[in-house]
Amino acid sequence: MFFNTLTSITSATMIRSQHLCRRAHAISPRVWTTAKSHRLTPVRIRTFQQIPSTFTAQQGNIGLIQLRCTHDDHFTRISNAAKDPKPIGLNSETSDSEVSSERVRSLPPPTAEQKKIIDHFTNEESNMIITACPGGGKTSIITYLAQARHEWRFRFMTYNNQLAKETEERCKIYGVSNMGISTIHAAGYNHYSIECRVDQGLTRVLLEDRRPLDDAPPPEFDTLIIDEAQDLTPVMFEFIKKFLSDHAKITYSLPNAKIPRIILLGDTRQVLYDYKHASSRFLTLAHRPELLGKVNPYKWTTFSMETSKRLTPPMTDFINECLLNSTQMDWKIYSGRSPADRPFQHPGYLIVSDWDGFCKFLIDKMKTENLQPDEIMILSPSVRNNQTVRQIVNFLAFNRIPVSVPDSDHAESNHQAAKGKILATTYHQSKGLERKVVFVLGFDGNYPVYYGSAATERLTSQLLVAVTRASEQLYMVADGKAEPFKWISETKLESYCNIQVIGAKCTQSPPKDTTRKLKDKKINITGLLYYIPNRTLTECFSYLSLELVHPPGIASPQKSLIDDSYRLKESVAAITGTAAISFFQIHYRKKFTMLTTVDWMIKTVHKEQSVRYKESITKFRKIQQAWTTKGEVSIGDVLFVAGLHNACSGGFYHKLLSIPDDGYTWITPTQSSDMADTIGEHLPKRGGFIERTIAANIPIESLGLKGSTGELLSSVTLVGAPDFIMDNARWIVEIKNTEILEPKDILQTVLYATIALHDTSEISESSAIDEPWTLEVLNIRTGMIVRVKTIGNFRETCLKITHLLIKHYSKQFSETVEPKQLDSLSVKEFLEQGENGFKDWIGQPVLPHWLFERPEKSKWELREERKALRNPGKKTMTTKPRMRKDPEEKLIRLTYIE
To answer: InterPro entries given for it (predicted)?
Structure first.
């Protein structure tokens, strides 16, 4: 048994100051001198090697210190940045001095359920398990408890960055100043290792029993709050236990030590990541000694909040009678909102066969009800792979209505880019979000395409999350050509919803098979690489070895958000990543093949859209002509073409209209040269294919996967587009533009190799040869290059790894009995796993340490050192490079100026 204890604020401050002084001198004498010259005291500043690109640290009562490091001049700027919002990401945490008094508001009175919890918390010494329905007030109860014990220090942790940001904003609004907020991975990153940005890092910390960083021990707190505990995975849960244990070891002997309490919040009905081995039992069984029961001496008390302050009475009536009763669930949601406040509208059930008509319905609704874009959310099982969502987003954008779409179905929504805009996102990504008006697409028989055959029989957690995001108006939207849900009574729908048909009423004919079969799909390999459980990663990497070709340099800073034409923010990181390879081509090969690709897409796939976006096409033609006739193109031109390429390939054109014509200026000449040099140092000046699409049928008979009709699936088609592939040299390079490489980036090259080995087209004549391919991942942000090698026969190993990923991916499409998920274990089996630290489910830290090592030099310095090694005796440059350019920043010639 271990007990977590805390130091007093004064003692903690003295200890922390000693750590900081040592760390500050360790950073750089120049930095420390500069800080002292500004009469600022650096607090918890990391070395530049630990700073991804921008790091903001607390600076006592004066403000914030913001450090930026660049590859261009290797300089450090220290400035008062108190006005800048502090990020919640992996490199920072909120602190208790960052509350703006100008925005402070009073909390509304707590509900009866919340008051009961507050009274217990203030009068009893106990841990708490709080289960809450959607809109039940989890975030509110956190602020109530922090204000009820304002002299205490609270620590809030969750798995989701978006939820952490929402909690931070709520605390600022209501003046909560005693709450430290971070994600679980951020806690690992800040207090243990930079590797903890990913699950593999947490795994290494656990299995190697790493000590906390000497200069960044776990912070002092009286109460630890874990939010969304139902979606904790084994590695997250065990890390929390270690975090508490190490906190106790550090603070137990300090004066005024106090054993902290633990509060877990969640909803057992909203488990979204069960395929990553998340389990609601981490919430419901937390009090058991095999889990958290021995963490401290306090008793455990369970509370529930089943009254929603978000949902209206008509919404809860619909959910209870049409969704929950229809699936024989033994619980209900109750609305805590009074009908006397305003007349509540019944949920809408829209049957749509004319999607332009649906868009007009939405726009008319905005006009007549004076709805703002950021009061509306459109949800779909998938966004990036849904033609209907594309049509809606493009229609709204063309009508000058700001709309935000995540760059992928798997990434979190960009909080800043979504402000002031209609948000179109997935059911998964909407967790923790709330807007006045919500449209839930996919409320029909096509839904099992995304969530498997089980979705034809019951309410899924994903759908429950989607229908509980609205605070005023909820619309379920069904495709008029699809069959309705069989498990929902049409009579009840008519009783609890306002049904409206948009477009001609279709004569519905049930499809032969509502569950899409795996064999009928062309799977883009990126879909296989998300949400991979640690156990699967461990098995995949057991067949691989990694070799460091180039070490990382200090990451180049890049803008990810710019001002758009609506005076809002637009995300441009994906455009920058696409443009990077073109910068290389222009600088080193005097080619710009993306022009040809985009031209083909405009003339064929997106011919109809080209009529609607004439201005963009006209601009593209001018750029094309300037390049063809004069060989001229500016940095802004390249970024524009990259944006048009992304729009054509993804089918979403909203960014073309939101980014102003003069807004393609976020990349500087030095940055474009740096990207080109980083790639150009490694790739050949001629030969190979840039972003060539490859596809092949992959045999999967050995997996024993079956379709919904019971037939054995023989093959599946995989599709991908490696950034660089050279068939005759058997060489594949995947180029990334990220702060740190992740396991999925490594596995992506293996999937490309599997496709190349099974490609029977004329282009890939060498595919039948079993000789190994050279597989590499290049990160242009840091310059790191990793070579991927197989252990054993190359062809067999690549296929084996591909099978593992397909098998994990196929669970939602196959009726085959899979190995048990964690949540399917009996209570006894689950607790036995807990007593053993869930070692069977956590896997092994299979990635090498150096993949996450902190860079010590800039990319430019490392390149110069490699040049010196390649050309001994030859004088190398001693000055930093910058591009010679004319006033219009033409990328015709790259030279160095001494």
So the answer is: DNA_helicase_UvrD-like_C (IPR014017), DNA_helicase_UvrD/REP (IPR000212), P-loop_NTPase (IPR027417)
Closest CA to 683 of 587, 555, 748: 587
> Which CATH number covers residue 385?
3.40.50.300
**Same domain membership, residue 713 and residue 629:** no
Same domain (yes/no): 327, 448: yes
Residue 814, C-beta contacts closer than 8 angstroms, at least 6 positions apart:
518, 705, 706, 707, 713
Decide which of 780, 812, 844 is a domain's last residue: 812
Taking CA atoms, 494 is separated from 455, 467, 473, 476, in Å, by: 22, 17, 17, 13
Residue 756: how many CA atoms within 13 Å on its side-chain side?
A: 30
Q: How many CB atoms lie within 10 A of CB 332?
A: 14
- Residue 598 tokens read as 């985009």
Question: pLDDT (tens digit, 9 = 90+) per residue, 489-531?
Answer: 888 899 999 999 998 766 544 444 444 455 456 788 988 887 7
β-pairing, 63-68 vs 77-80, is: antiparallel
pLDDT of the residue at 709: 58
Contact 320, 335 (CB under 8 A): no
- H or E element, residue 440: strand 435-441
Looking at the domain assignment, is residue 671 inside a domain? no
CA angle 409, 410, 411 (to 5 degrees): 105
**401 shares its domain with 534:** no
Residue 427 and residue 460 in contact, taking contact as beta carbons nearer than 8 Å: no
Mean of per-residue pLDDT scores for the chain:
81
Nearest to 260 by CA among 153, 141, 414, 392: 153
Contacts of 354 by beta carbon, 8 Å cutoff, 6+ apart: 502, 503, 504
Distance CA 690, CA 536 (A): 31
Classify residue 452: in a domain, yes or no. Answer: yes
DSSP label at residue 369: T
Model confidence over 413-447: pLDDT tens digits? 788 899 999 999 999 899 989 999 999 999 988 76
Token pair, residue 383, equals 């966004």
pLDDT digits (tens, 9 = 90+) for 164-209: 988 998 899 999 999 999 999 999 999 999 889 888 899 999 999 9
Domain carrying residue 197: 87-308
Token pair listed for 411:
């990434």
Task: Give the pTM.
Answer: 0.83
What span, in angstroms and rounded, lies between the C-alpha atoms of 676 and 586? 8
Strands (DSSP E) found in 393-452: 403-404, 422-426, 435-441
Write the CB contacts of 156 (distance below 8 Å, at least 6 apart in sequence): 142, 164, 167, 179, 180, 181, 182, 225, 227
One domain, residues 653 and 721: no
Cβ neighbours of 426 (radius 10 Å)? 26
Give the closest residue to 265 by CA, choosing from 415, 94, 438, 144.
144
Give the tokens for residue 764. 């890939």
Residue 313's closest CA among 285, 288, 336, 342? 336
What does the block give as tokens for 323?
């969704």
pLDDT tens-digit map of 700-712: 888 877 655 566 7
Q: Quick check: 105 and 183 in contact, CB under 8 A?
A: no
> Does the pLDDT at position 50 exceed 80?
no
pLDDT in tens, 204-235: 999 999 999 887 888 889 999 999 999 999 99
Q: Are 761 and 555 in contact (CB under 8 A)?
A: no
Work out the number of other CB atoms within 10 angstroms of the CB of residue 510: 11
**Which DSSP string do the residues of 694-709 spell out, in sequence order?**
EEEEEE-GGGT-B-TT
In-domain check, residue 434: yes
Task: Kindly indicate the confidence band of residue 746, based on its pLDDT and cuts at 50, 70 and 90.
Answer: very high
Q: Are residues 239 and 376 in the same domain?
A: no
Asked whether residue 818 is domain-assigned, the answer is: no
**620 vs 611, which has greater pLDDT?**
620
Note the pLDDT tens digit of each residue in 665-710: 999 999 999 999 999 999 999 999 998 999 999 998 888 776 555 6
Q: What one-character DSSP code corresponds to residue 107?
A: P
Beta bridge partners of 426: 380
